[in-house]
Design a protein that fits this description.
about 0% strand
């Protein structure tokens, strides 16, 4: 269990570091690969909650608060709620691919 938590923490730290890259396309490719690998290393379906729960909470916060999450953004709150939901779903999908590959490998 501790190893799975270490993998999740390392994965989140890696995504944070990838956000600092100037080259967007390579960063997205490496982030997607790291996410699939993290899902495969954890190998449990509950790991899908890691991106989904914060995305839902952030989306609800933006919708309930009724204003932009930052003062410098100029879109409607529904746009940011959708963006948070899409990002959470994309990360959950990639984690699910990794978990599924792990399960197939164990057969």
């Amino acid at each position: 269990m501790v190893a799975r938590i270490v993998v999740i923490v390392a994965w989140i730290a890696a995504l944070g570091l990838l956000m600092t890259w100037d080259a967007t396309t390579p960063a997205l490719i490496v982030a997607a690969a790291a996410t699939v690998i993290a899902g495969g290393l954890v190998g449990r379906w509950w790991v899908l909650l890691v991106p989904v729960v914060p995305a839902v909470l952030l989306g609800l916060y933006v919708l309930i608060d009724g204003k932009d999450p930052g003062e410098w953004w100029d879109s409607e709150p529904i746009t940011y709620a959708f963006a948070f939901g899409f990002a959470g779903a994309a990360l959950a999908f990639l984690l699910a691919v990794g978990v599924a590959l792990n399960r197939l490998q164990q057969r």
